[in-house]
Amino acid sequence: MDITIAIVEDEQHCTDRILAFLKPYSEKINTICFSSVDDAKDGLEQIHPDIVFLDVMIGGKTGFDLLSQLSFSDFCLIFTTSYEQYALDAFRFSAIDYLLKPIDREDFEKAIEKAFDQIGQRQLKERIDVLLSHLSQTPTTKKISLPSKDGFIFLAIEDILRCEADINYTHIFTLDGKKHTVSKTLKYFEGLLSDFGFFRIHNSHLINLKCVNGYSKSGYVTLINNLVLEISVRRKEAFSKAIGGFLQS
Amino acid sequence: MINCLILNFAFYFFGLILQGIPSDSDSLKLKKDHLDLADTLILDKRNDFIKQSLFTNSSDSTLLEMALETLAFSEYLGYQKGALMANERLGLIYQYRFSNPYIALDYYLQALSISESNPAVREFKWGIQGNIGTIYYEQEEYEKGLEIFKEVASNSRKLELTAILNIGNIYGSLQKNDSAIFYFEKALEYEQIKSNPVQLANLYSNLSLIYVQSNQLENALETAERSLALVDSLEIDFVKPTAYANSAMAFLENGDLNKAEQMALMSLEYSQKQENLFIQKSAWGTLADIYEARGKYKESLDAYKNFATLKDSLTNQNRRVEVSRKQMAFDFEKERAQARVDIERQKLVRNFTLGLAILIGLILLIGGYLYKRRRDSLAKIKDAEFKTLVSETELKALRSQMNPHFIFNSLNSIGDYILKNDSDSAQDYLSKFGKLIRIVLENSGQEEITLREDVEFLELYLQIESKRQPHRFSYSIRFAENIDLDAILVPPMLLQPFIENAIWHAFPENGERGRIEISFEVKGENLLCIVEDNGIGRAKSSNSIGKKSMGVAITENRIKILNEKSGTQGSLQIIDKTLDSGTKVEIMLPLHLAY
């Protein structure tokens, strides 16, 4: 069975580059290219591709506009972008793949292999919802998509109690007492969640400041589930500042 | 006997001066307009004249006026002795002439206060005290009187005799006849009394009364007659009423009723003439006894009625005096208390005001100090914050300078690569550089990144550059065991310029394959970063002629500012390896940990 790959891209040299990278797989794939959102919408509805490479800026419109118009979502989505920092965070939250232009060959190969693997387990609809919610200006309950062994887990960020580092893995503990393990570093989550009231108190602890019950000057913080965690010496000052600012807002 | 009369007349505290005193008052006239200091002599004489007249002719009504005038003149002249004497004379006049001890006491106290406030006239104090004593005596406050007289007797030799006489009187009044007789007889031994017929007459008169009281009737008669002899022969009017009254008692007790009646009537006559109610009262009482003894009951009753009337009026007067005295004492006490309260209050107010002022002063001082300290510390904090801001801005500017610097050098690399390779691999090369520039942009926005992030960047950079010149150099990055890549924080891109220098300048084309060694190590409180190459060294390299690499200059400045900002001792050393070839760059940074 051939795999259909759609490329939505308004710059020809970018399209060419992706096509060049796909050449080694030509035996098992069909490719189709679109250069505008409107063309792509109609075309995609017709062909139902398995994998879509989608640019963020397409003419005057965005790939997000296209996504929100699509009636189906059982495909594998890979964004391509130059330098839209705001979008990068949204991609990370929704665990949607992206490639930075100019696209590095090794990065592309990793992404396409992963896409081939994931054709069976998509849950793209939910991930697109997460993506769009992070891009939206209106305040909504922000979620995060966590890739797991069996697909994706979606958590409301405010339901996360804390994250704990376990070498290259991170355990995420939620308010209902569940634990999810993700193969990303704690630093990765620190980068994503610090804008949502999370604070790294320790080399291996990232906590939700909303869930702090109290803290002692001697360097311990108590969470609402009565868990006591140590604040590392070098983080104490920054922590009191952060919790002070957090309580004020 | 219905009346037991006690008629001890007080002894005046002034002996009479019989010579040098004019017999009439005309020569002592003074006009206020023409007063001068020489007139103090005349004032003295006036005082002497008043006293003399008081005792010889006590009914002279001009004396009061004269005494008042003398007082006024003395005060006008500021003549203390004159004022003191005049006050004393006025006291005498009121005491003996008007039977008004209250006003008399007032004048005595005036005189006393003058004498006490003025050392020159202090000697007169005892005389005045003596007069006050006689008032106590007359007011029957014997204890007080006794006290004063004893004091006078022991302090003033001149007045010792008079004081003793008065002590005798008081004992007589207290019915302690033996003591009274003892003191009177002691008084008779004094030389002074022999030259003072008034006193002597008085003494005999009083002694006779005491003898009557102690029933030594013969002695009583004898002394009574002695007093009469003196009074009559010397015409001592002043003592006459008393002497007559006392001798009347002596005659009465001895049964000589005629003589007694005669004496009593004469006493009455003189005492009426002198308007002395005390003696009148006594005379009436004695007369009542005499008439009773004679069987003249009607006359006795009349006499008794007079006696009773006078007694009542005197008692009233006494009571009035008593009331006035008490009022006076009360007023005085009240005033003193008031004054004391005033003083206390003023003291309190003063203390309070002072305390308040001190308190306010202290508060202001402390407040000022605290304000200043706070202002200083705020200024310090602000200053420090400002400095930090400045250095952060400077650092940021320097980091930002790294971006175009890096991009231009990258363009050089890319151009170089494109010249040597096909367009496909040039594309790949370009995308790698794109990745690198992205990292540079991201890192340069941050003050510090983890050592892992910086090393990842360096590794990518070295990878890309070694791909461009595959046989030019090899590289290695080594970490000492005490390096925790995720915990150590470093300013981004501090080492890159030195690596770049080595890549571009250390190894000549077609030369031997060079080597770049990068290592990290924790040394005490510092992180030691070393970039070492085995190239041709700075001296020979084309870049080093007179100019420094832009990136190296920026890094030097960054380390300097970092030191200023956090007071640390970061350092940069570029060592030319003269024995080996090549260059060694050592960067020492204060160890900064994330957690």
UniProtKB/TrEMBL annotation, chain A:
Give the record's keywords alphabetically.
Phosphoprotein
Question: Annotated Gene Ontology MF terms?
Answer: DNA binding; phosphorelay response regulator activity
Methyltransferase recorded as keyword: no
Q: Where is the HTH LytTR-type domain?
A: 144-245
Positions carrying 4-aspartylphosphate: D55
Name the chain's protein.
Two-component system LytT family response regulator
Q: Which SUPFAM superfamilies does the protein's record reference?
A: CheY-like (SSF52172)
Q: From which source organism is this entry?
A: Algoriphagus iocasae
Boundaries of every Response regulatory domain copy: 4-116
**Matches recorded under SMART domains:** LytTR, REC
TrEMBL record, chain B:
- GO MF annotations, alphabetized: phosphorelay sensor kinase activity
Gene3D superfamilies for this protein: Histidine kinase-like ATPase, C-terminal domain (3.30.565.10), Tetratricopeptide repeat domain (1.25.40.10)
Alphabetized InterPro entries for the sequence? Bact_2-comp_sensor_kinase, HATPase_C_sf, Sig_transdc_His_kin_internal, TPR-like_helical_dom_sf, TPR_rpt
Specify the Signal transduction histidine kinase internal region domain's residue ranges: 393-473
Tell me which domain of life the UniProt entry assigns to the organism this sequence originates from.
Bacteria
Q: Where are the transmembrane segments?
A: 352-371
Instruction: Tell me which SUPFAM superfamilies the record gives.
Output: ATPase domain of HSP90 chaperone/DNA topoisomerase II/histidine kinase (SSF55874), TPR-like (SSF48452)
| Species per Swiss-Prot/TrEMBL record | Algoriphagus iocasae
Protein name stated in the entry:
Tetratricopeptide (TPR) repeat protein
The TPR repeat units are at 161-194, 201-234
UniProt entry keywords in alphabetical sequence: Membrane, TPR repeat, Transmembrane, Transmembrane helix
According to its record, what are the GO cellular component terms? membrane
